[in-house]
Amino acid sequence: MISKPMEHALLDQLNREFSSAYLYLAMSAYCSHLEFNGAASWFKLQYEEEHLHATRIYNYLVEQGVHVVLGEVACPPSDFGKLPDVFNTALTHEQSMTSLLNDLSDQALKEKDHATYNLLQWFVNEQVEEEATLGGIISKLKLVKEDGYGLLMIDNELGARQTASSAA
Description:
With 168 residues, the chain is mainly α. The chain has helices at 4-33, 37-63, 83-110, 114-144, 148-159, 164-167.
């Protein structure tokens, strides 16, 4: 059984994961509006991944006997600037999530809550991948700058992303 402080912290994180999903869906809609359909598809898959992250925490809380009460999800922005700005916003968001997950992991260690710590290590490791992936995309966008052909190539590459289940 988890402590009340850990329960509240995980419920907050559950809400943050749903907020992340909502943010990525807004980014997908924005990229679609800009007619970067590959990026729109990439962010839609990111939305689905974040929803799965929320579900992982939700399932853990239910298994721990927690009465899950969902919090409010704030409305995300509707304008993100140019395509590189969208990805920079995503990276900043992921860096913020990394910090929050590291703090949660520290809390679990402090409480000697090994089950929660193990759950959170999956998320900590996932964050390394998230930040590296976004960093790679941003590097390519910096390389091509405003070149239309380069942006088209990157957009096509982003559109080729598959979910882990569809790639298997």
